[in-house]
Amino acid sequence: MLKVAVFGTGHLGKFHLNNWKEIKKIELIGFYDPDDATAQAITEKYQLKRYTDIDELMDICDIVDIIAPTNFHFELCEKAIRKGKHVFVEKPLANTMHEAKELVKLVKESNIKLQVGHVERFNPAYLAISTTPLHPMFIEVHRLAQFNPRGTEVSVILDLMIHDIDIILSIVHSDVKNISASGVAVMTDTPDIANVRIEFNNGCVANLTSSRISMKKMRKIRLFQKDAYIGIDFLNKKTEIIKLKNVSDEDAFTFDIETKNGKKTIAVLQPLVPEVNAIKMELEKFCEAVINNTPTIVSELDGYRAMDIAHQILQKIKHNTINT
């Protein structure tokens, strides 16, 4: 049985603790959190031992689960990897590209598994199209959130948009050709709202808007490809496909439209959205990768690539701000 230690028991850390408690393949052995009040509450609620020495806790576990603030990711990941521990680390992988590159190098030289917590990969609405061929030529993304001081140690790019960057990179199998970006800091010292255009070598274009100062919440991706439109609502867990009807779409709602090339039959599909807990599933899949010695679903390289694009976006915004 794998022994798991949790590092960081804040808002998201509590979700991890709740889900680890339900996973049968592991034993939750302890946690580390420097805040005494938080630690006391966790100890009482979960009947879990608090460790104040990072090394002591890491030495007795198999898996290190890191949900600490981003600026602590590298220090904890590096220590865990050098100790030969498997690592689950929340997104983003690290605080800087130099740190991320070093972590990729360390993982490659080691015999451990590392997974980055890009949880939207496990969102039921996204899983609903896992068997749907995706070849988008245009992608429209809106990720809007109401302001919350939690997570504002990083920009909206690394806090929110990076989820969508990771999804897009997993869908569009082509190198990035060009990035255009604009953003503005409103409530914090880093961009709180941003609009980004990513152009790929295969001709696909992705337009992303992220805001953490919105009056309403929204997490939607719209994919436009030849003969089909695919809408994914990550927030409300809904997925819709509108496409030209084929023989496999017998159960779909259909309607006809007249075009200059004759009548076309349109099929409207609502794929079955599985009832899954995304956080629990990502942790379970990570454990399976460790046990079976198989690749993690969101690897350190995936985390690095998403960070790379995010930092290029930040540089574009910084350049535009300086020259405004």
Q: What strand line-up does the widest sheet have? A: 7-8-9-6-10-11-12-14-13
Taken as a percent bin, the fraction of beta residues is 25-35%
CATH-level-4 superfamily name of the largest domain: Dihydrodipicolinate Reductase, domain 2
Helix amount: 25-40%
Shape by Cα distribution: globular
Helix and strand composition category: alpha/beta
CATH top-level class of the largest domain? Alpha Beta
CATH architecture of the largest domain: 2-Layer Sandwich
Structural domain tally: 2
Radius of gyration: 21 Å
Tell me the major beta sheet.
9 strands, mixed
The helix/strand order is EHEHHEHEHEHEHEEEEEEEEHH
Task: Tally the helices.
Answer: 9
| Total strand segments | 14
Distance between the termini: 57 Å
CATH fold-level label of the largest domain:
Dihydrodipicolinate Reductase, domain 2
Arithmetic mean of pLDDT? 93
Low-confidence stretches: none
